[in-house]
Amino acid sequence: MDSLAAAGARFELAYSSNPVCMPARTSMMTGRYPSHFGIRGNQGRLIPPEAQAHALGNLLRGAGYRTVFGGKTHWPSSMTPQSIGFEYLTADERDDLADKSANFLREQHDRPFLLVSSFINPHDICYMAIDAYTRAENLPAMYPRNQIERQCVAAASAMPAGVSGQEFFARHCPPLPPNHAATMEEPGAYAGFGSFRGWARRNWSDEDWRLHRWAYCRLTEAVDGQIGRVLAALRETGLDRTTVVIFSSDHGDMDAAHGFEHKSLPYEESARVPFLVSWPGHIPAGVVNRRHLVSSCIDLLPTICDYAGVAPPAGLPGLSVKPIASGKAPADWRNDLVIECTGGRCLRTRRYKYTMWEGPVPREMLIDMEKDPGEMTNLAPKPAFASVLAEHRRLLRQQIESREDDFGRSLCS
To answer: Is residue 320 within 8 Å of residue 300, measured between CB atoms?
Structure first.
């Protein structure tokens, strides 16, 4: 991943359209916000045939590309790789996906192609808290058939050979993050999490959290190696000179920030994701963009279409990052970006992040991202920020109305 960033453009203000698997992944393939289909979380909704007909695979296949998808899908059941225009390379999400993706690149290609390699990790980390919770509460195992995930977490959690527990935590294990504490005056919705997420927040020790961070790093190293095998095949075949590589993700993990693990929240650790675009000789190397707000989901399809010379469907909310990656600053780029969450909506502007939640009061959070990048102080209750709060309420309401989003409009009035 570092090699991709060094060889191309890295967008530092890239966010998921909804930091949960199914909503974000549906958004990536269709170029639509999850709310367009009524998707709020990992509960499936019917994706209309006309939307699938204009999904990413079908768009490029119709333009003469060979389109291949491998790995994790996690879309609504009405969507399959074939229904949105892809050959399905493999359902494996780890090593076999890396090998089959590399082998695909080594084939003789008589037409342009789009290869999507959808790796799972470091997502396996979620089983650490899930299993700790069910064991502590004497509950039946959640997702009992998912044993490969548990094996990966167990391997990632192992301490280095020959190292004592004392030495491990003193010299090897990552420290707690600086923003491990709860945000001052956090919205009421955050205090009400039940199940394994709330349990971990209430019960995990500092060492539990630090071991979580160790395992998360090791799972990230594992997927980095799998990505490296695909990129090695790209270089080996010389295809790196004619191929655009885009790397991103559907969501992150809180990984001990604010006492949380897992995803879903609009905090940076969960919602801000990598977005890297690399094409040696066409994209300047080492570009770090900290100015433009990018969506890893709604901007992905327009960006791929732009590089492929394919017209995207009309009316999509996303934008192509190709001009920015090439060093051209578009004059009409967005000034704010919506992050949808289950039960909430977040608006990211250049300086602030504003979130509105359904449910218990207080419902709002306003963060000054320049002065408080760890998101430790909620400014929404502070009278000095009343005008900033009102402006962000207005901007979010405008976004909700323009997209016909069914999120509680009365809350934003």
So the answer is: no
Classify burial at 65, counting beta carbons within 10 Å of its beta carbon; exposed 0-12, middle 13-18, buried 19 or more. middle
In the block, tokens 């992150």 appear at: 252
pTM: 0.95
Give residues with Cβ within 8 angstroms of 69, minimum separation 6: 57, 81, 86, 87, 88, 89, 116, 118
CATH code that applies to domain 338-412: 3.30.1120.10
Question: Which stretches in the chain have pLDDT values below 50?
Answer: none
Nearest CA-CA partner of 285 in 275, 273, 276, 294: 276
Distance separating alpha carbons of residues 17 and 14, to the nearest angstrom: 10
Residues 6+ apart with CB under 8 A from 347: 336, 337, 338, 339, 353, 354, 355, 392, 395, 396, 399
DSSP for 178-200, please give it.
TT-SPPBT--HHHHT--HHHHHH
**In whole angstroms, what is the distance from residue 150 CA to residue 159 CA?**
16
Residue that has been written with the tokens 């009102």 in this structure:
390
**What is the SS3 assignment for 109?**
coil
Amino acid 412: pLDDT = 55
Please name the residue that has the structure tokens 């095998």.
229
Q: Which residues contact 100 (CB under 8 A, 6 or more apart)?
A: 70, 89, 90, 92
The domain limits of the chain are 338-412
Q: Got the DSSP string for 354-413?
A: EEEESSSSP-EEEEETTT-TT--B--TT-GGGHHHHHHHHHHHHHHHHHTT--S-GGGG-
235 close to 106: Cβ distance less than 8 angstroms: no
**What is the distance, to the nearest Å, from the Cα of residue 272 to the centroid of all Cα atoms in its chain?**
7
Distance CA 238, CA 313 (A): 32
Rg (CA), the chain: 21
The confidence score (pLDDT) of residue 101 equals 98
Residue 34: its pLDDT value, please?
A: 95
Closest CA to 251 of 2, 11, 16: 16
- Considering only CA atoms, which of 378, 380, 24 is closest in space to residue 186? 378
